[in-house]
C-alpha cells in the first residue's frame, strides 16, 4: 500500500490562512486536515498522527498582548484534557520524531514566542521576538527574498531567492542580544532575508518592510526541520497569484509551492 504524507494545519482563535495553507499542502501531494486547536486540547486529535505541522497566519486572540503571545501561553501551559502535559510536550515528541513544522507569519510569531525557534540551546527559552513594524502600520506588500543556500533548512533546499507577499503589523525580528544574532548567522539559521533590487539584504524601507535586524524574514532551528517566516508562501501557488501575472511571463506554479514540495519530498524520503 502506498504511504501518504499527512499534514495538519491548525485553525481557530483567529487564524485566517488555514485554507490556503491546506491547499498548498494538497498541491504538494500531502493528505491534509485542518484541525481546530480545541480538537488538540481536548485530546480528540493527536499531533503524532501527522508528519507535517503547519501553523497558519492570522490574528490569534486578536493580537492581544502582542501577536501570538496568548496563543503561545496556551500551548505552553494549558494541559491537554485527560493528561497533565501541555500541547508543547506533544509538539516536542513530534519534533523529536524527525517531523516537520512550518509557521507562517502568526505561526512564526507563535514558534518564536513559545521558544521553539530558534531554540539555540535546545530549550524553550525565548531569545528573540517579532514586534511592531518600524513604519508603525500594517504592511501588505510583495517582497524580494534571498535564501542562505548553506542553511540546513529543509524547506528552502535548492532555492536562491523568492518573491512573496507579507501582511503583518508585527514582523520586525529582533534578538535579545548580539550573541543570539551572531549564533544565528554563524549556524546559517537566518534562512531568509529581505533583499533590494540588487539581491542584497537591506534595511531600507519598503524592500525591508518592517526594519528586522539583519533583514531577517525567516529562521530555522539547527535541525532545519522547524522553520518560521513572515512572508506567506501559501499566497503564491499559481501564476495568477503574482501581482503582475497579466504583464509578465511566469511559470505556472508559484514560487511558494516549492517550500511545501520540499517538505513533502523530505518526509517521503526520511519518514515513510
Ligand atoms: N498575516 C498574519 O499572520 C499577521 C500576523 C499578526 N496578526 C500581525 O499582524 O503581525
UniProtKB/TrEMBL annotation:
<dbReference type="GO" id="GO:0005737">
    <property type="term" value="C:cytoplasm"/>
</dbReference>
<keyword id="KW-0067">ATP-binding</keyword>
<keyword id="KW-0963">Cytoplasm</keyword>
<keyword id="KW-0436">Ligase</keyword>
<keyword id="KW-0315">Glutamine amidotransferase</keyword>
<dbReference type="GO" id="GO:0016787">
    <property type="term" value="F:hydrolase activity"/>
</dbReference>
<keyword id="KW-0378">Hydrolase</keyword>
<dbReference type="InterPro" id="IPR010075">
    <property type="entry name" value="PRibForGlyAmidine_synth_PurQ"/>
</dbReference>
<protein>
    <submittedName>
        <fullName>Phosphoribosylformylglycinamidine synthase subunit I</fullName>
    </submittedName>
</protein>
<dbReference type="InterPro" id="IPR029062">
    <property type="entry name" value="Class_I_gatase-like"/>
</dbReference>
<dbReference type="GO" id="GO:0005524">
    <property type="term" value="F:ATP binding"/>
</dbReference>
<keyword id="KW-0658">Purine biosynthesis</keyword>
<dbReference type="GO" id="GO:0004642">
    <property type="term" value="F:phosphoribosylformylglycinamidine synthase activity"/>
</dbReference>
<dbReference type="Pfam" id="PF13507">
    <property type="entry name" value="GATase_5"/>
</dbReference>
<dbReference type="GO" id="GO:0006189">
    <property type="term" value="P:'de novo' IMP biosynthetic process"/>
</dbReference>
<keyword id="KW-0547">Nucleotide-binding</keyword>
